Amino acid sequence: LTIFIVAIVDWRLKDEPLSTGAIVGGLFIIAAFIMLSLSTYREMDEERQKNLELEVTESDLEEP
């Protein structure tokens, strides 16, 4: 993500248009960040569901 920010700051300071490579690279970085975020969210959700299932199973065992 920093590489993309550096490209934008460079564009603003030098007042030159961004190259096609910089734009495509920035889009790849953004896409990768979104994929990583979604993957992390799914993993956390699976862990949460697993913990809930364990709690239910444990509470079923404790009841006479």
Could you characterize the architecture of this molecule?
The chain has 64 residues and is mainly alpha-helical. The chain has helices spanning 2-14, 20-62. The longest helix is centred in the middle third of the chain and has 43 residues, at 20-62.
Please give a quick description of this structure.
The protein is built from 2 helices and no strands. By secondary structure, the chain is mainly α. The model has no long low-confidence stretch (mean pLDDT 83).
Key features of this structure:
64 residues, 0% strand, mainly alpha
Fold blueprint:
Blueprint: H1 2-14, H2 20-62
Q: Strand-residue fraction? A: under 5%
Q: What is the average per-residue confidence, as pLDDT, rounded to a whole number?
A: 83
Q: How does the helix and strand content classify structurally?
A: mainly alpha
Reported for the largest beta sheet, the result is: none
Question: Number of helical runs?
Answer: 2
State the helicity in percent bands.
over 70%
Shape: rod-shaped
Distance between the termini: 55 Å
Q: What is the ordering of alpha helices and beta strands?
A: HH
Number of strands: 0
Rg is 22 Å
| Uncertain segments | none
